[in-house]
Amino acid sequence: MSIFESKVELNRPVSEVYNFLADFNNHQQLMPDNISNWSSTTDEARFSVQNMAKLALKISNRIENQTIIIVPAEQVPFNMDMRWIVADLGNNTTEAILTISAELNMMMKMMASGPLKKLVEHQTQALEKVL
Question: What CATH superfamily is the domain 2-130?
Answer without folding.
Answer: START domain (3.30.530.20)
